[in-house]
Write a structure and sequence with these properties.
Radius of gyration: 21 Å
Number of helices: 15
Largest sheet: 5 strands, parallel
Number of strands: 13
Order of helices and strands: HEHEHEHEHEHEHEHHEHEHEEEEHHHH
Strand order of the largest sheet: 2-1-7-8-9
Length: 373
């Protein structure tokens, strides 16, 4: 892609790092990158190496796979194991552990679970298998919700009654508020999520600056994007400001994508409550299918157990998602818990903090020892 190299220019990164160090001075700062895509970039490209030691990057709950609670995974497996059901899912969901195992485990035991690249692929499977009931495991933040919404509309128009959605879409704003209200963490500012913001825009983050006095800069996903976002956040703090800024203006419109917001609103509504891994139950933080599309809502069509399952005692994904622990501080990181044998969800997706650090940073032993000690 043209211009990618320009956003990874080492000389510019070094200059930005020096400017950030001058602005930071001797003060300590903690910034949270909300999006898992930012976390992956930070580890993959060694962005932290360009920052002074007094700037600490905290990894937030912006990985869609990571926040799915074990009970919802078990609910989905229960649906998948019913007669004449084909469950479809994005690939990174296949290894997410529930109390009863993962989708891969269920598939190995005979359930018909298929990986798809788009919910529209699930619709095609439903057309080609009229004698089967096809369920799409819908996950993700507002980034992926519009594609699920468009698929619901298409299924309704075509009268494909054998297609339904098990909706697990979550929304970023309530999660941000839960983090800001958490007594466990004190943050100085945020790097706002780039992908989510392409849909909802930057305006919804205004409460972060207005009500909590914290700057938030919506940032892109290249190394220089993240460094510039940190620089802009520091400038605000040094000038005594707390505002919403859009570093990713080449992609993110201030008021979001009106068509995407429209189809979401037409097909889905907020749930009263939804459980997040690590954050617990948060009100109005997830979406469910509207009554008008009940014929395609798996939770209305099937008997979903809805059992809550506690995370394994050894897993500390909750603390990692809230930024209380760094990935390597988890007691099973890199030993019992690896991307091949994940105990927690943060080790599953490429956007999960544990998987990103395991894949791109685990050989930096001196740095880990220094951080732990």
């Amino acid at each position: 892609m043209k211009f990618v190299d320009e956003y990874r220019d080492r000389d510019i990164a070094q200059r930005l790092g020096k400017q950030i160090a001058e602005l930071a001075g001797d003060d300590q700062y903690k910034f949270m990158e909300v999006c898992g895509g930012h976390t992956a970039t930070i580890y993959r490209h060694g962005v932290e190496d360009y920052l002074p030691d007094n700037i600490d990057l905290i990894h937030g709950p912006g990985c869609p796979v990571c926040v799915i609670p074990m009970g919802r995974v078990d609910d989905a497996i229960t649906l998948a194991e019913q007669d004449d059901v084909i469950m479809t899912s994005f690939g990174d969901m296949m290894r997410v552990p529930g109390g009863k195992g993962s989708f891969f485990d269920s598939k190995a035991n005979g359930a018909d679970i298929r990986m798809v690249y788009s919910p529209l692929d699930s619709l095609k499977i439903a057309r080609n298998n009229p004698d089967k009931r096809v369920i799409f495991m819908a996950i993700g933040f507002e980034t992926t919700a519009p594609s699920t919404a468009a698929t619901l509309m298409r299924a309704s128009q075509e009268g494909l009654d054998n297609f339904s959605v098990f909706c697990n879409h979550v929304t970023i704003i309530p999660a941000l508020k839960a983090i800001l209200d958490s007594p466990d963490l004190r943050l100085d500012g945020f790097l706002g999520p780039g992908h989510v913001s392409t849909v909802i825009g930057c305006r919804p983050y205004e409460f972060v600056a207005r009500d909590y006095g914290k700057p938030i800069v919506t940032s892109g996903f290249e190394p220089l994007d993240i460094l510039q976002g940190i620089y802009q956040t520091l400038v605000q703090l040094r000038e005594g400001r707390a505002e919403v800024e859009n570093q990713y203006s080449r992609v993110v419109p201030w008021d979001g994508n009106p068509k995407a917001l429209e189809v979401m609103s037409h097909t889905m509504e907020l749930r009263p409550y939804f459980e997040w891994r690590g954050l617990g139950f948060i009100s109005h933080s997830a979406m469910q299918v509207r009554e008008g599309f009940a014929a395609h809502d798996a939770e209305r069509i099937f008997d979903v157990p809805g059992v809550r399952v506690a995370d394994p005692d050894a897993c500390q994904c909750g603390e990692v998602l809230k930024g209380v622990l760094k990935p390597w501080e988890c007691k099973v990181f890199g030993t019992a818990c690896t991307p091949e044998t994940p105990i927690g969800t943060c080790m599953v997706s490429s956007e999960g903090a544990c998987a990103a650090y395991y894949n791109f940073g685990r050989f930096d032993r001196d740095r880990v020892q220094e951080a732990v000690s």
